[in-house]
Request: fold
Amino acid sequence: MSHEHRGHGPHKVGHMKEVTSLANPIIKDIKALTNKKSREESGTFMAEGLKLVIDAIELGWAIRTLVYAKAAKGKPLVEQMAAKTVASGGLVLEVSEKIISSITRRDNPQMVVGIFESRWKPLKDIRPKDGETWIALDRVRDPGNLGTIIRTADAAGASGVILVGETTDPFSLETVRATMGSVFAVPVAKATPEEFIGWKKSAGVAVVATHLAGSVDYRTIDYKKRPVVLLMGNEQSGLPDQLAKEADALARIPQQGRADSLNLAVASAVMLFEARRHLLSLSEGK
Ligand code: SAM
Reply:
């Protein structure tokens, strides 16, 4: 996305600007972030809401643009975030509610939107230590599932998420919404199946794969011996043999009733909290 002051109107001090037209090229660039291609080309993505923007800035994510609706002007936290954005060389846009609605494609939009630089954790930098849990997702398709899993991984104290194969984008608006801010707290890496298998061999981890044909009850596994990578299968087709055969255990969550399987995000939650059960306590957590 462009950093320049294009469009109409006089320049304000630093990088602050009022925008009133939907046709403004900066607004068009921001709206284009709903497309994966634009997000990849610009290396940026959008997060809605003051809370998320504050979380992201506090966690050290680089903000490129802060957009707020006129109604939010003068609110102390909004002003603070605007000052931080300008101080880090970003752009602050004051816009009409109509523009913010159109950026977020919502009738009742949040009053504040932040455009941040995307961040991927390189797979080779992941060297899990004892007590760490990672979750790897094979070709996850649904943005709501991915967002929910990132949020759950955060809540369970997992160290990060590894996306294997062609997956939905963690930086899409829908996924970011579903993470409720955890996308800023949980490192996300991506890998081809081959890269994941190669990494697994040298990372000193135990891969616990979940499979509907798994023969091991997930509650009988020792999750303390080595750092654990939970490997979850695709929503439609489950885990392919190529990945399943690399696992140290094929775990199953016993079920009753008519349902064939659990939803991917639900199965991930069950596994994350079981794998970290010995590390989670009310006295040390929230
Ligand atoms: N039709 C798919 C299949 O045959 O595997 C169903 C996939 S399920 C919706 C998505 C993923 O959630 C599975 O690949 C597995 O990783 C996990 N999962 C769901 N229910 C499970 C269970 N009862 N035991 C183990 N894993 C389960």
In short: Residues 210-212, 214, 232-233, 235, 238-239, 252-253, 255, 261-262, 264, 267 surround S-adenosylmethionine (CB under 6 Å). The CA atoms of residues 149 and 268 lie 7 Å apart.
